[in-house]
Every structure is written in C-alpha cells, then in structure tokens.
Amino acid sequence: MTTLTIQVDDKDTDFLLQVLKRINGKIVKTSKKENLLDGIKKGLQEAKQISEGKLQPLSLKDI
User: Fold this and answer.
1) Which of 6, 17, 35, 62 qualifies as a cystine partner to 58, CB 3.0-4.6 A?
2) Angle at 47 between CA 41 and CA 51, to 5 degrees
3) Which one has a higher pLDDT value, 47 or 6?
4) Separation of alpha carbons 21 and 49, rounded Å
C-alpha cells in the first residue's frame, strides 16, 4: 500500500473524495481546517446538550 499526501483546491475536494471511494482509498490525515470545523461542531453539539440538560457542564474542579 502507498500513502500519498496531496493538496487540491477546495472546489476539487468532493471530486477527489468520490475517486478515492471508487478505488477503496481512505483519508489518513485530515486538514487543519477540517479538524477545526469538527471541533467547533462538537462544541456546539455539547453546548446544545448542556442547555437541554442531557449533559453536565464541566466545573473548575474538572479542569
């Protein structure tokens, strides 16, 4: 198996992901932007769960 690191324009990302799926490829490392967006998304989901009472907020002792 060969591991490649490539850089493509944002507009070409969807096309590249479709090609990778067709050849059973997988993404080993995601972009920093995607990691940041995933973290924000997770934080918003946790904030929603806290406001709904489904998740307990962290206290200063937890940190």
Assistant:
1) 62
2) 145
3) 47
4) 33
Average of per-residue pLDDT across 4-14: 86
Whats the size of the chain, residue-wise? 63
Domain spans in the chain, listed from the N-terminal domain onward:
17-51
Per DSSP, 33 falls in state: H
Report how far apart the first and last C-alpha atoms of the chain are (Å, whole number): 42
In angstroms, the CA 36 to CA 42 distance is: 10
Q: In this structure, what token pair is assigned to residue 31?
A: 């972009």
Nearest to 5 by CA among 31, 43, 34: 31
